[in-house]
Amino acid sequence: MQTESKLKYVEETMQIPSDVQITLNSPNTITVKGKLGELTKNFINAGVEMSLQDGILKIRINGRGRRAVAMLYTTISLIKNMMIGVTQGFTYKMKIIQSHFPVSVKVRGNELLIENFIGEKVPRKVLLPDGVKAVVKGEEIVLTGLDKEKVGLAAGLIENATKVRDKDPRKFLDGIYLYEKKVGIES
Fold first, then answer.
1. Which helix (H) or strand (E) covers residue 106, if one does?
2. Are the CB atoms for 125 and 113 separated by under 8 Å?
């Protein structure tokens, strides 16, 4: 009788660039350091095991099949985004669209205040995630940060805060909309 040995895991290796330092705090928590700063991410819920040797990161996920392969390449993509973030950063640009009332947007600490949106008396507030910086330049909001997930989350929170409800969306186009994503921090 012939037995076929199948792997009980999927794994991949990735080369670490010379300008990035990676440390493993545990088999599934990683810290990435670069010239702009440092990011830490925990992959414990993904069932990821990582090992570091001679500038090569080895990522292993227990299981096999489509789900394990998808989780493996998602993890690799997240780590690559962390490496890009600590070396170059991310910039998202948003446009303020107003047709009925003049909208005023201000940044106070880690909070974005949207005043007079559709003529409302009370300003709408958006709490920005840690590590995300917002700058208002006329009719444009520039979001910058090292963590791509947090910068994208901030853009989504701002769009949702200015969503027009109970009005005809073909006529009331007012809002703040994302129009550009870039690698690199813009001032």
1. strand 104-108
2. yes
Nearest to 187 by CA among 137, 149, 139: 137
Tell me if residue 18 falls in helix, strand or coil: coil
pLDDT tens figures, 25-64:
887 889 999 999 999 999 888 888 899 999 899 999 988 8
Q: If one looks up domain 9-87 in CATH, what number appears?
A: 3.90.930.12
Q: What is the pTM of this model?
A: 0.88
Ordered by start, the domain boundaries in the chain are 9-87, 90-183
CB 70 within 8 A of CB 20: no
Q: Which two tokens stand for residue 44?
A: 């414990």
> What is the C-alpha separation between 123 and 138, in angstroms, rounded?
18
CATH fold of 90-183: Outer Surface Protein A; domain 3 (3.90.930)
| Distance, C-alpha 59 to centroid of its chain | 21
User: Distance of CA 72 to CAs 23, 29, 62, 76, 163, Å?
Assistant: 19, 15, 10, 6, 35
pLDDT in tens, 125-154: 999 999 999 999 999 999 999 999 999 999
CA-wise closest residue to 16 among 91, 94, 113, 84: 84
Contact criterion met (CB below 8 Å) for 67 and 161: no
